Amino acid sequence: MGSPASLVRAHGPSLSIFDVLDWENDSPKFVRLLRGAATFDAGTLRYVCPARWGGEPLTPLMLGTSDRALVVGASGLFWFGPDNAPTTLPLPEFFDAGRVRGLFADESNVGILTADGDIFGVTAEVMTKVLTLSPPPDSVGKIDNGWLVANEDEGRLTIYSTSISGQFSDILDIPYRAIPELVIDSQNDQTTVWILGTTGDGHRLDRLDGTSLVPIARTADPISGPVTTSAGTFVVIGGQLQRIVEDALVATVETPRLFCLRRTPRGELLACVGSDLVSLDPEEGLGAPLLEIHSIQPPSLEGLDPTETLLCRQDWADAARDAGLPESLISPPEWNSPSPSPPVAEPPENRPANEGCTNTNPTSWVMLLFFAIFISNLSSARA
Q1: d(CA 209, CA 49)
Q2: pLDDT band for position 186 (cuts 50, 70, 90)
Q3: Distance of alpha carbon 314 from alpha carbon 307, whole angstroms
Q4: Which of 144, 330, 336, 343 could form a disulfide with 320 if both were Cys (CB 3.0 to 4.6 A apart)?
Q5: What are the pLDDT digits (tens) for 90-140?
Q6: Cα dist. 267→24, 32, 58, 65 in Å?
Q7: 351 — phi, psi (to 5°)?
Q8: Closest by CA position to 216, among listed 197, 201, 230
Q9: In whole angstroms, what is the distance from residue 101 CA to residue 108 CA?
């Protein structure tokens, strides 16, 4: 599910809300943006600079679990936990973060797929190589007791399941010309496997039904979803919400153009509208905004070294200007307060002649002068 092309600006991706990766008590906690990320704490949405994960990429691979979010950066892998502070994940020898192709998870477990076909299991403190798939697949999804694997090669799609023991079970081998992405949609104790395909001229959506694919949609527009709630299964195609009923698309309420489709922990729909994330009802349409980009606050610079601080400030200024934020947010006053300078010792030749004297009262000097004149006159008289 790629980023909407219309939301890309001249200086890079836009400052737009794209997903909530981590929730706490039904409230957003760690937020994915099209550029960088954000934390949401006590009602404040605060930007997180890419400098926190090495500066690049501006839009990294991210994945949320039940209590933290994993970010794949240029300099390694980083957990953003309950305190929203990044923790560097120790990497195995010879592991290259630039070779990470995909992330997948169930409720509490995270997996990493590399371009070499390696699968790593990841916990809060360690990552372990589980197995190697050959040829390296296009997409992997977590299922009970193992993984579902999809790969397109020379116009044929193969889908199979595997487990940590290395056992394989073939499911599908059919003609197919697209780059497949598995979407494991689990809701209401039911799991449906969807395959989103990126073709040479557009996109396709299919449902895995046993050992065959059921076609759902072919379109030139990006597809977001499917997402299942108690009200049904929905997908966004052509910027509009549609319901999937018996493998057919059914139009729902008309809305402004939607760029993404998400689901809250309670099973309610959310949609990307412009730069914001808004509640969505399939019958009533758009509701109240959950997160609005104009409320975002400048990033914290705490813990960054001087180089990272400079990169963070420049990145924020670029992104915030593109988003049309006010100058007071682009360059907040607390960033412009000069550090107190240490006192500078004055050269000795510039010091006052009386510096170092404990008595600087001018009356005392006058009395000494008169005393000196008195002694001089007394000496003259005796002579």
Answers
A1: 42
A2: confident
A3: 11
A4: 330
A5: 888 778 888 898 888 765 678 899 999 998 888 878 888 888 998 999 999
A6: 15, 19, 30, 16
A7: -80, 150
A8: 197
A9: 20
- Per the DSSP assignment, residues forming a β-bridge with 31 are 20, 38
Length of the chain: 383
d(Cα 87, Cα 8) in Å, to the nearest integer?
Answer: 29
pLDDT of residue 220: 95
- What pLDDT digit, counting tens, does each position of 212-263 carry? 999 999 999 999 999 999 899 999 999 999 999 999 999 999 999 999 999 9
**Residue with tokens 């299942």, as numbered in its chain:** 228
> Tell me: the pLDDT tens digits for 149-159?
999 999 999 99
Sequence-distant (6+) residues with CB within 8 A of 260 are: 1, 4, 18, 19, 224, 236, 271, 272
At 186 the three-state DSSP class reads strand
Four-residue CA torsion sign, 253, 256, 262, 264:
negative
Hey, what are 141's tokens?
């999804």
Rounded Cα gap, residues 76 and 35, in angstroms? 18
Residues 64 and 108: their CA atoms lie apart, in Å, by 9
DSSP 297: B
Give me the sheet containing 110-114, strands edge to edge: 100-105, 110-114, 118-122, 127-132
Task: Show the tokens assigned to 85.
Answer: 């502070």
Please tell me the distance from the alpha carbon of residue 285 to that of residue 17, in angstroms, as a whole number: 19
Residue 92 carries which DSSP code? P
The alpha carbon of residue 247 and the mean position of all alpha carbons in its chain are separated, in whole angstroms, by 34
Distance, CA of 191 to CA of 275 (rounded, Å): 31
